[in-house]
């Protein structure tokens, strides 16, 4: 079977072998696609296999783990104030430390009461769109331990909040 890279080479060869014809590269790609039985180049490019091997390593997303010490305070700050939802909760058995997965609009965080999972005082840099809307939402909740302000930086607008455990979340919009 012909690969995507081979089809591109065919289009290039077609242009060089027809020097008198004013044939653009895109027109050559369209002709090759039709010769191969496809409706147009977009369909051919989507269906032809690639010669490039898949990478051995492919990262997904990073999920930070933040240390927490008090379940009630963590729920008040992350769920009530920041508006996260619970993705999962885990304890090895009742009375043992909580490991909590939370999510909001594609941002996943894990909160752990387990000693050694994370150090208090971490800083997360969180790119986002809508920093003013987030500020207004948070201010509207009248959280007793913070009134977030937007700080203009040369590289963007920053809204920083501090959780009850010394961790900083820096929401940034460029």
What is the gist of this entry?
This protein has 174 residues and is α/β, with parallel strands linked by helices. The chain is 30% helix and 25% strand.
List the helices and strands and how they pair.
Layout: H1 4-17, H2 25-35, H3 41-47, E1 65-67, H4 71-81, E2 85-90, E3 99-104, E4 107-112, E5 123-127, H5 131-140, E6 150-153, E7 156-162, E8 168-173
Parallel strand pairs: 1-4, 5-8
Antiparallel strand pairs: 2-3, 3-4, 6-7, 7-8
Output the keywords.
174 residues; alpha/beta; 2,3-Dihydroxybiphenyl 1,2-Dioxygenase, domain 1; 2 domains; four-stranded mixed beta sheet; 5 helices; 25% strand; elongated
Number of domains: 2
Q: Structural class, please?
A: alpha/beta
Shape: elongated
Tally of strands: 8
**Termini separation (Å)?**
46 Å
> Which radius of gyration do the C-alpha atoms yield?
26 Å
Helix content: 25-40%
Q: Main β-sheet, in a few words?
A: 4 strands, mixed
What top-tier CATH class of the largest domain fits best? Alpha Beta
Order of helix and strand elements from N to C terminus? HHHEHEEEEHEEE
Spatial strand sequence of the major β-sheet: 1-4-3-2
The CATH homology group name of the largest domain: 2,3-Dihydroxybiphenyl 1,2-Dioxygenase, domain 1
CATH architecture classification name of the largest domain: Roll
Give the overall average pLDDT.
Answer: 91
Q: In words, what does this structure look like?
A:
- By secondary structure, the protein is of the alpha/beta class.
- It folds into two domains: 4-47; 65-173, 2,3-Dihydroxybiphenyl 1,2-Dioxygenase, domain 1, CATH 3.10.180.10.
- It has helices at residues 4-17, 25-35, 41-47, 71-81, 131-140, and strands spanning 65-67, 85-90, 99-104, 107-112, 123-127, 150-153, 156-162, 168-173.
- It has a four-stranded mixed β-sheet with strand order 1-4-3-2, covered by helices on one side.
- β2 (85-90) and β3 (99-104) form a beta hairpin.
- The longest helix has 14 residues, at 4-17.
- The radius of gyration is 26 Å and the shape is elongated.
């Amino acid at each position: 079977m012909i690969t995507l890279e081979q089809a591109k080479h065919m289009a290039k060869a077609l242009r060089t072998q027809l020097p008198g014809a004013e044939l653009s590269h895109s027109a050559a790609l369209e002709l090759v696609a039709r010769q191969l039985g496809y409706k147009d180049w977009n369909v051919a490019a989507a269906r032809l296999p690639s010669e490039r091997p898949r990478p051995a390593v492919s990262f997904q997303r990073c999920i930070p783990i933040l240390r927490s010490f008090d379940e009630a305070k963590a729920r008040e700050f992350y769920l009530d104030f920041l508006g996260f939802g619970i993705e999962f909760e885990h304890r090895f058995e009742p009375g043992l430390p909580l490991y909590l997965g939370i999510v909001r609009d594609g941002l996943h965080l894990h909160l752990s009461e387990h000693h050694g999972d994370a150090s208090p005082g971490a800083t997360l840099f969180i790119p986002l769109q809508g920093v003013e809307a987030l500020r207004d939402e948070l201010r509207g909740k009248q959280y007793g331990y913070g009134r977030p302000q937007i700080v203009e930086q040369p590289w963007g607008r920053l809204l920083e909040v501090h959780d009850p455990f010394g961790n900083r979340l820096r929401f940034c919009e460029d």
